[in-house]
Amino acid sequence: MESSKYPNFKFTWLGGLILFAGFVVGSVAVGFFNVFWMLVFKENLQYKDWFLMASNAVVFLSSIAFFDFFVVRITTKKKLNFNFSPTNFYTYFLIFPMMLGMMFIGEFVTSQIPITGPFFGKYYDFFTDLMSQLTDNPVVMILTAVIMAPIFEEIIFRGIIQKGMINKGVKPWKAIVIASIIFGLVHGNPWQFVGAILLGCVLGLVYYKTKSLLLPMLLHGFNNLCSSILILYTKNESFGEAFKVADYIILIIGIVLFSLFYYLFMKKYKVHYSEI
After folding, report:
1. I need a surface site. Which of 8, 118, 162, 234 has the fewest CB within 10 A?
2. Is 118 helix (H, G, I), strand (E, B) or coil?
3. CA-to-CA separations, 81 to 32, 170, 178, in angstroms, rounded
């Protein structure tokens, strides 16, 4: 039988350290470039929208490259490679409503986290100020959030961490949850943490079932596109405020959507995928 063209790498604590080392090296490289630019051209690129976008790309690529060269190629003798195959129409019809349902559920759960008080109030003000700086340029925000982030983050969290843990023998549901928790933690704030875990579980499930990294990338981009549109036109990431309905209505709709299409995706349409 012909061996798979996709490397059967494993993700361990050492792989995690190598990913982090790539992150540090990429961040340092970006910092040095900015210092060089300031010395030569007397301009701080830190406040340029395009530089923020480019910096994120450099850091992500550095992390992925480190894992590729220092883990995958050494242990499997193959280069890092993923299945990006499209799927049939019915699968898209099932996974996007399922994702939307979880987005509604995530919004309700996130809305229960306090935004006032001695700790949450100051942290929330800092977080909103930071986000407002990131959304000054709508074009850069869309390119970063809807295209770059879904590609790089899905490669790392689903393609490397989740898949690597499953290859190591971790039960799929545990690998999905662990990768989603790490995905939530790197967002660095409690309001995105909860939603990232819930959405990460859907992304991880879709990747595990379909074996195609293209699908979680599209779903991730769909989620970020909805958030970007809400920010641009309502200054808030709330579907409830955008549609002028109560939070519990959003929750009910989310539960119905997610439950129905989760059932159809998992039970009704048993489409089998494999990586060859």
Report:
1. 118
2. coil
3. 30, 21, 22
